[in-house]
Amino acid sequence: MSIVIDETTKVVVQGITGRMATFHTEEMVEYGTNVVAGTSPGKGETEHAGLPVFDTVKNAVTETGAEASIVFVPPPFAADAIMEAVDAGLRTCVCITDGIPAQDMMKVKRYMRTKRVERRMQLIGPNCAGVISPDRALLGIMPGHIYTSGPVGIISRSGTLGYEAASQLKEEGIGVSTSIGIGGDPINGSSFKDHLQAFEQDPDTSIVLLIGEIGGPQEAEAAEFARDHMHKKVVAYIAGLSAPKGRTMGHAGAIVTGSGESAAEKIEIMRECRIPVIERPSDFGAAIAKMI
Amino acid sequence: MAKAFRLVLSDDRVEAILVNVFAGINRCDWVAEGVVKAMTELEVGVPVVVRLAGTNVEEGRRILAESDVELTTAETLAEAGARAVASVSREALREG
Description:
- The complex is a heterodimer of chains A (292) and B (96).
- By secondary structure, chain A is an alpha/beta fold.
- Chain A has helices at residues 19-31, 57-64, 75-87, 102-113, 159-171, 192-201, 218-229, 263-272, 284-291, and strands spanning 10-14, 34-39, 46-48, 51-54, 68-71, 92-95, 122-124, 130-133, 137-140, 149-156, 176-181, 207-213, 233-239.
- In chain A, strands 3-4-2-1-5-6-7 form a seven-stranded mixed beta sheet, with helices on both faces.
- Chain A is globular.
- Helices cover 53% and strands 18% of the residues of chain B.
- Chain B is built from four helices and three strands.
- Chain B has a three-stranded parallel beta sheet with strand order 1-2-3, sandwiched between helices.
- The radius of gyration of chain B is 13 Å and the shape is globular.
- Chain A binds chain B through residues 20, 24, 96, 129, 140-143, 146, 159-160, 163-164, 167-168, 171, 281-282, and chain B through 22-25, 53-55, 57, 76-78, 81.
């Protein structure tokens, strides 16, 4: 049981005719993801990358039964694309786009909340790597060959550090159940805590690695959730110990502006919540190997 | 990549350059081409260590192997760090 998608999940690629979308659609199809359609307004009733293209997500759902989407749409239009996915009744949406204005994401989140809880779409990202359940499905831009299947769940803001962890784990002969990139933006569709809840219920996962960084309250919220509601082991790494205050370090959300947002403070919070902290990004594999 | 090299080299405390890329939406062949171009256009003057992993890694490594530029490669993050540090010590020994 994978927690977000599996090999049967029908996927529609929003913005499929773009260069990035085309490459990653081919990668996803090769990985085994059940990609059934793409959308590109105005290009409906054509074909692209061997898939039928529709003008709208709703049309794609009607014709193919698509349940999840991945959004490769430029920043000025990406929020609309996400809301279109909501309107089409999709269960899950991964948004890869980097650069969606924060106010647009606030609009998206408000819009998502107008739907009933049971029918609400799960949004992963934006500005994220996506989701992979090794040997089952890839809904994202992660390089599939670095993963092997196993008991470690990964939730990460940084795509690259997520790959680093998975790759080192594979070297140790340890696999990943599902790796989720929640992205680098300050306002995202789902937080560490949202996915910790799912991992706690997932029979395929026995230990969760949380890869955080400077900026925002998500790590503290996750630590408290883990302390109060989880039985499974959680281990963390927090990037940005040497980041200067007030400077955006790559990700839009990676900026220390308030108290509790620095790496040192987040590490302290982790330890207070009895979550072991990995000290160096070259230690992911060895540290988790000791815990398994 | 040339711009990045120039920026980094504008700090004269820099004694080695480590390029560490684990590519997802990025691609190792793009990075490798960028590194080769930067090192061909610029007078780098310090040791360069490159570690590539992820999307199109075989292609990226091939481009580096077939190029004329002098650099050290590494496969893991730990190796990359160790080789970068070692390259500084080697240079220091040579000059000292």
